[in-house]
UniProtKB/TrEMBL annotation:
ATP binds at residues 11-18. This is Guanylate kinase. The gene is gmk. Residues 4-182 form the Guanylate kinase-like domain. Its main location: cytoplasm. Keywords: ATP-binding, Cytoplasm, Kinase, Nucleotide-binding, Transferase. One of its GO terms (cellular component) is cytosol. It comes from the Bacteria. The lineage of its organism: Bacteria, Bacillati, Bacillota, Bacilli, Bacillales.
């Protein structure tokens, strides 16, 4: 049986990864989405095991020690990581897996899965990015400033990605990502 393909979506905080990811889940229910572990507190409406596996710092460090994470990274004061077994099992079943993770983690995944397909979601502009983070209303001013400075550093790593998708309109961005998935399945593999 053919193995599934591994897709990674990254992009700065507030660019719309969550929004586009949710829209993709509706449009492409057959795609399997990795659920990350994090030490960040749940936001309003977030559910354990659905949006993230919410862990204490000790629990997270235990997962690292037991080598249960494919990659992990520290981002704006919290740990985030991708459970390894779920990714391996999904691919082994011939199904695609979709990871939404920040750039340091994405680069580590690239070392382990050089054939993965890496997609970077870009804001139409930096001003629009700041407005979106602010508009979401989940962050303090200090966290917004921190996330904006990380965003600029992250965008400098765009060259490591295979595709750049501008999130101007949610529907257009989804269409572009769907097109990438379709095209990757049509590729002639050696
Ligand atoms: N390396 C890594 N990054 C992750 C993982 N899960 C989520 N992230 C990233 O961590 C960053 C912060 O996520 P979050 O706190 O949910 O905020 P938001 O994505 O900006 O709404 C985002 O860039 C996520 O894509 C993971 O398993 N590994
Ligand atoms: N294409 C878009 N146009 C306008 N606003 C958007 C778009 N995509 C996302 N947003 C808004 O931007 C904010 C940040 O989106 P979110 O999905 O939480 O970003 P991320 O997961 O990348 O941090 C949210 O308030 C969301 O509604």
């Amino acid at each position: 049986m053919a193995k599934g393909l591994l897709f990674v979506l990254s992009g700065p905080s507030g660019v719309g990864k969550g929004t586009v990811g949710n829209a993709l889940r509706e449009k492409l229910p057959e795609l399997t989405y990795s659920v990350s572990a994090t030490t960040r507190s749940p936001r309003m409406g977030e559910q354990d095991g659905v949006n993230y596996f919410f862990k204490s710092r000790e629990q997270f460090l235990g997962m690292i020690e037991r080598d249960e994470l494919l990659e992990h990274a520290e981002y704006v004061g919290n740990y985030y990581g991708t459970p390894r077994d779920f990714v391996d099992q999904t691919l082994a079943q011939g199904k695609d897996i979709f990871l939404e993770i920040e750039v340091q983690g994405a680069l580590k995944v690239k070392e382990k899965f050089p054939d993965g397909i890496f997609i970077f979601l870009l804001p139409p502009s930096l001003d629009e990015l700041k407005d979106r983070i602010r508009g979401r209303g989940t962050e303090t001013q200090a966290t917004i400033d921190h996330r904006m400075s990380v965003a600029v550093d992250e965008m400098n790593l765009l060259r490591h990605y295979d595709y750049a998708v501008v999130n101007d309109e949610i529907d257009f961005a989804c269409k572009r990502i769907e097109s990438i998935i379709i095209a990757e399945h049509c590729k002639v593999h050696p």
